[in-house]
Amino acid sequence: LSAPGGVSLVVPQPNINATVAQNILLSVEYSCRGIATIEWKHVSSWGTTKIVEWKSGNYVNISTVYKDRVTTFENGSIQLLNVGMRDAGYYFITVTEEYGTNTYGTIIVNVYEIIYEDLHFVAVLFAFLAAVSAILICFMWLCNKSLHLFQKTTTHKLTASTTEEIELETIEC
């Protein structure tokens, strides 16, 4: 984006997806003829918060809410440390040239929680199903062995009784 006074601002990544406790870089690149003032604001459902404001090469004024979590860079970028769910929302950057010309940029940040409870549930369910299937396999193996043993003893008994009947029949004749 370029304003008539010669201020330009580039936002290479306007959408950022992050997980809780991650560090994120809100990357921008500005250029102007003179000294610029850079201001970052965060807008979400909880309201609007001014994060930081500084002049290139001069003072840096970080709000108390972000004091230990923000690092500023000369190109206008900021790094936000240890993001939480409240950090999701819109980040607006305003670059103001000393002659009063402004340019604006926006970055949307989505923050997701890693749901360990869901992963734990899936792992427990998988272990339970594996145990049940192992028990069923063992039960089927035992049933198969028992069936073979039963068939062997039944076949042996049948063979003995038919032999006796044949012997008896031959004696009667």
TrEMBL record:
<keyword id="KW-0812">Transmembrane</keyword>
<keyword id="KW-0732">Signal</keyword>
<dbReference type="InterPro" id="IPR013106">
    <property type="entry name" value="Ig_V-set"/>
</dbReference>
<keyword id="KW-1133">Transmembrane helix</keyword>
<feature type="domain" description="Immunoglobulin">
    <location>
        <begin position="13"/>
        <end position="112"/>
    </location>
</feature>
<keyword id="KW-0472">Membrane</keyword>
<dbReference type="InterPro" id="IPR003599">
    <property type="entry name" value="Ig_sub"/>
</dbReference>
<dbReference type="Pfam" id="PF07686">
    <property type="entry name" value="V-set"/>
</dbReference>
<dbReference type="InterPro" id="IPR013783">
    <property type="entry name" value="Ig-like_fold"/>
</dbReference>
<protein>
    <submittedName>
        <fullName>V-set and transmembrane domain-containing protein 5</fullName>
    </submittedName>
</protein>
<dbReference type="GO" id="GO:0030425">
    <property type="term" value="C:dendrite"/>
</dbReference>
<keyword id="KW-0325">Glycoprotein</keyword>
<dbReference type="GO" id="GO:1904891">
    <property type="term" value="P:positive regulation of excitatory synapse assembly"/>
</dbReference>
<dbReference type="GO" id="GO:0046847">
    <property type="term" value="P:filopodium assembly"/>
</dbReference>
<dbReference type="GO" id="GO:0005886">
    <property type="term" value="C:plasma membrane"/>
</dbReference>
<dbReference type="InterPro" id="IPR015631">
    <property type="entry name" value="CD2/SLAM_rcpt"/>
</dbReference>
<dbReference type="InterPro" id="IPR036179">
    <property type="entry name" value="Ig-like_dom_sf"/>
</dbReference>
<feature type="transmembrane region" description="Helical">
    <location>
        <begin position="119"/>
        <end position="142"/>
    </location>
</feature>
<dbReference type="GO" id="GO:0030424">
    <property type="term" value="C:axon"/>
</dbReference>
